[in-house]
Design a protein that fits this description.
- The structure holds two protein chains of two kinds.
- Chain A is α/β, with parallel strands linked by helices.
- Helix content of chain A is 39%, strand content 22%.
- Chain B contains eight helices and five strands.
- Classes of the chains: A alpha/beta, B alpha/beta.
- Bound molecules: thiamine diphosphate and magnesium ion (MG).
- Thiamine diphosphate sits between chains B (38, 41, 44, 76, 78-79, 125-128, 155-158, 184, 186, 188-190, 248, 262) and A (38, 61, 63, 88, 92).
- Chain A: Its cofactor is thiamine diphosphate.
- Chain A: This is Transketolase.
């Protein structure tokens, strides 16, 4: 099988890629500012603050104000990157996100840090496994869930280049770098196929992409050629990639999110209304018990063995 | 079980002192073993928690749902280490349970969960929720003419959340004398000093302007805490805000007033030095 391999064993915290990219962009574009809510360290924006002290607005622990101030800064001609823990920038400030950013359709970039269950033992208040479901409702907001450092950096650049609301969901969990050809490009709305295969398709994003690739390897060994699609953009969806996935006759979606309303829900809406094929949606069922992120992944079968199992079961239901 | 009226004041103060030391030591051990937690804020809150549970509140840990109990809401839920230690000391669950802090499937989640543990009134973790929930509890008590009191502990950085100030209006409007807010005024938030982030001072004047009765105390002085918190609430006609001036990391020299201990965790040497100082 032709698989994307990790370049090295090195693991990366994608918040660092975000921080480096935003510093580089800010050096080129004086309109770029950052907005934080006592979230400088957790956003890795200490370097930005040192380089551009006047271009960081720290509103204190006040996420509703955080998001709304972002909208105001955009009105004043700035390009604000508003960054805080994903659970709070979405859940706590949802009406500001809806009315001030999405409905007002302003040029604000929301950066949801440490998304998914990265905060592990801190529990469901700090997990952000509802964010995609909430934000998917805003049809004009681009939603990007990058999988590795390169894609994080590209997503931030694409967000800056796009005139309109964008949400980029970043993890603090260390991930490998995927190997890509030199001419690889990231475009909002286009998925990338990481592993070829025609027996089934795993559609994943974010931290789960690496696990999907590992599961596909297990399945290849037993003769189930499983395609792995990295669906980094949840809105807008790459409809052609999903149509092609349906042609393999079995789809498993995989995300560090609730099984309700996220990537799986988005894919299912399209598949059910175009070319229904057997599907499984992998993720978290709801509020999770106490435990580290790694423990929770294993507990809910979001590891290569569990994912491979889900693919086998879905393939068995193929028509 | 606990009621300040039955115990002479000096004995109460002595007991509170020993419990607050125990809470500091035990919570620090929990943080050390879990290699996670918020020890700086555990230490700024330890004396307040000990005073509430061992000198002020009326409760029976065997009847955690008794409708007449005084309520405590730990709004700064990130300091679950000190809160759990206080609950165990107060008899809500065996001390042994503290060993499971943040372990897989533990009842002692990083932030308190009322569905796992008795004595937890509401799930906290996101800042700025405790005061509004406590206000709802106090309104229920007011509607029923009940004589229980409701206490809520917030951080000071936490007061940057607007929900607190919305609620400040509601509580004063309803003259909730059965409601007491204690602010852990350690002057540090997650990444910096409060006054370098979003200025809170003059904090007492703000609460007064919102219609609250305000008391300022040394938040590590057990006698002062005991006196303001156990003063009769009836007839005050206003909710009470106690601004407890504290230090993050209080009790351990290298943690004292040091923001890096907001969620810093100790290595072995630091743990041993801290335990040697906490006597
Ligand atoms: C709504 C919300 N935003 C952000 C956080 C992340 N956070 C946890 S503790 C903390 C700082 C709290 O400071 P303070 O209220 O002063 O507490 P203390 O100093 O007593 O620890 C922050 C920003 C949170 N828990 N909830
Ligand atoms: Mg503080």
């Amino acid at each position: 099988m032709s698989a994307v391999e990790q370049t090295t064993d090195e693991l990366f915290d994608c918040r660092e890629s975000f921080a480096q990219t935003i510093e580089a962009l800010a050096a080129e574009d004086p309109r770029i500012v950052t907005v934080v809510s006592d979230s400088v360290g957790s956003s890795k924006l200490g370097g930005f603050r040192t380089k551009f002290p006047d271009r960081m607005v720290n509103v204190g622990i006040a996420e509703q104000t955080l998001v709304a101030v972002g909208a105001g800064l955009a009105n004043g001609g700035k390009v604000p990157f508003v960054s805080a823990a994903s659970c709070f920038i979405t859940g706590r400030a949802m009406e500001q996100v809806k009315a001030d950013i999405a409905y007002s359709n302003v040029n604000v970039k929301l950066i949801g840090q440490s998304s998914g269950v990265a905060y592990g033992e801190l529990g469901p208040t700090h997990h952000s496994i509802e964010d995609l479901a909430w934000l998917r409702l805003f049809n004009n907001m681009k939603l990007i869930v990058p999988a590795d450092p390169w894609q994080t950096s590209e997503a931030i650049r694409a967000a800056a280049a796009h005139d309109g609301p964008v949400f980029v969901r970043i993890s603090r969990m260390k991930v490998p770098a995927l190997e890509r050809s030199a001419d690889a490009r990231f475009e909002i709305g286009s998925a990338e196929t990481l592993v070829e295969g025609d027996d089934a398709t795993i559609i994943a994003n974010g931290t789960m992409v690496h696990r999907a690739v590992a599961a596909a390897r297990l399945l290849a060994d037993e003769g189930i050629a499983t395609r792995v699609v990295n669906m980094a953009t949840v809105n807008p969806l790459d409809e052609a990639a999903i149509a092609a996935a349906a042609d393999t006759g079995a789809i498993v979606t995989l995300e560090e999110h609730s099984v309700r309303g996220g990537l799986g829900g988005a894919v299912a809406e399209l598949v059910a209304t175009t070319n229904p094929v057997p599907m499984r949606i992998l993720g978290f069922p709801g509020f999770v018990p106490t435990g580290s992120a790694e423990f929770l992944f294993d507990h809910f079968g979001l590891n290569p063995a569990g994912i491979a199992d889900a693919v086998r079961q879905t393939v068995a239901r193929k028509r | 079980m606990s009621s300040s009226t039955k115990v002479p004041r000096n004995d109460a103060v002595t007991q509170i002192a020993s419990k607050s030391l125990w809470i500091r030591r035990r919570s620090f051990q929990m943080v050390y073993e879990a290699q996670q937690g918020h020890p700086g804020g555990d230490f700024s809150a330890a004396d307040i928690l000990a005073t509430l549970y061992f000198g002020v509140m009326r409760f029976d840990p065997r009847k955690p749902n008794d409708p007449g109990r005084d309520r405590f809401v730990m709004s700064k839920g990130h300091c679950s280490g000190a809160f759990y230690a206080a609950l165990a000391a107060a008899g809500y669950f065996p001390e042994d349970e503290l060993k499971t802090y943040m372990e897989p499937l533990s009842k002692l989640n990083g932030h308190p969960n009322r569905n796992y543990l008795p004595g937890v009134e509401t799930n906290t973790g996101p800042l700025g929720h405790g005061l509004p929930v406590a206000t709802g509890i106090a309104i229920a008590g007011q509607l029923d003419n009940a004589d229980f009191r409701t206490f809520v502990l917030t951080g000071d950085g936490e007061l940057q959340e607007g929900s607190n100030w919305e609620c400040a209006l509601t509580a004063a409007h309803r003259k909730l004398e059965n409601l007491t807010l204690i602010v852990d005024r350690n002057r540090l938030q997650q990444g910096a000093r409060t006054e370098d982030t979003a200025t809170l001072d003059p904090l007492d004047e703000k609460w007064r302007a919102f219609g609250w009765h305000v008391e300022m105390v040394d938040g590590h002085d057990h006698a002062q805490l005991l006196d303001v918190l156990s003063a009769p609430a009836k007839g005050r006609g206003k909710p009470l805000c106690v601004i407890a001036n504290t230090f993050k990391g209080k009790g351990v020299s290298f943690m004292h007033d040091n923001v890096s201990w907001h969620h810093g965790v100790p290595n072995k040497e630091q743990y041993e030095q801290a335990m040697a100082e906490l006597v």
